[in-house]
Amino acid sequence: MNKVKILFVCLGNICRSPLAEGILRQRVEERGIAHLFEIDSCGTAAYHIGKSPDQRSVANALKNGVSYQHAARQLNEDDFDNFDFVIPMDDSNYIDAMSLVPQGAKAKVIKMRAFDDLAKGSDVPDPYYGGENGFQEVFEILDRSVNNFLDHLGKLSEN
Ligand code: 4NP
């Protein structure tokens, strides 16, 4: 069976998208379905290529029981061939991703909070310039959205 390949996208690839990647990795482990997935993240910008995730994000995730690592990389056109879902965090990332996507692959690009039943379609706020509360808020948004996304995939596979 082909793996489902999922790529999360934010601006710098050091706060939001690596956290989404880490949460999804952990949740699929917990559900016993990790073997069915390939999961990655990237940024639309090149500022932080090769860097580890923001330590504030990592520390906050640990408090919530999620541990993860990543090396930042930039989104490129091949990603749209290699992944089934390309999931931007906000409108700006969505517009940047759509400017790279080949015709025929547009339906792969779906905003993260399309799966957030509490605030469908809104942005995952950028916590980079904010305080500790922002990181917790982002964790909760991503955890809810990622769990709903997994439920959505489960329903697709039943059809
Ligand atoms: P991210 O957050 O897109 O969630 O990784 C940011 C990280 C760095 C910057 C902006 C957003 N920056 O301007 O350096």
Task: Provide a concise account of the structure shown.
By secondary structure, the protein is of the alpha/beta class. 40% of the residues lie in helices and 11% in strands.
Describe this structure in words.
The chain has 159 residues and is of the alpha/beta class. It has a single domain (4-158), classed as Response regulator (Rossmann fold). It has five helices and three strands; from the N terminus they run E-H-E-H-H-E-H-H. The protein has helices spanning 16-30, 55-63, 79-82, 91-98, 132-158, and strands at 4-10, 37-43, 85-88. A three-stranded parallel β-sheet has the order 2-1-3. Helix 2 crosses helix 5. The longest helix has 27 residues, at 132-158. It is globular and about 40 Å long. The chain starts with a strand and ends with a helix. Bound molecules: 4-nitrophenyl phosphate. Residues 10-16, 43, 47, 126, 128 line the site of 4-nitrophenyl phosphate (4NP).
Question: Can you lay out the helices and strands and say which pair or pack?
Answer:
Elements: E1 4-10, H1 16-30, E2 37-43, H2 55-63, H3 79-82, E3 85-88, H4 91-98, H5 132-158
Helix pairs in contact: 1-5, 2-5
The chain binds 4-nitrophenyl phosphate.
**CATH superfamily, please?**
Response regulator
Report the sheet-strand fraction. 5-15%
Uncertain segments are none
- Read across the widest sheet, the strand sequence of neighbours is 2-1-3
> Which CATH top level class fits?
Alpha Beta
**Count of individual beta strands:** 3
Largest sheet: 3 strands, parallel
In CATH, the topology is named Rossmann fold
Q: What distance separates the N and C termini? A: 16 Å
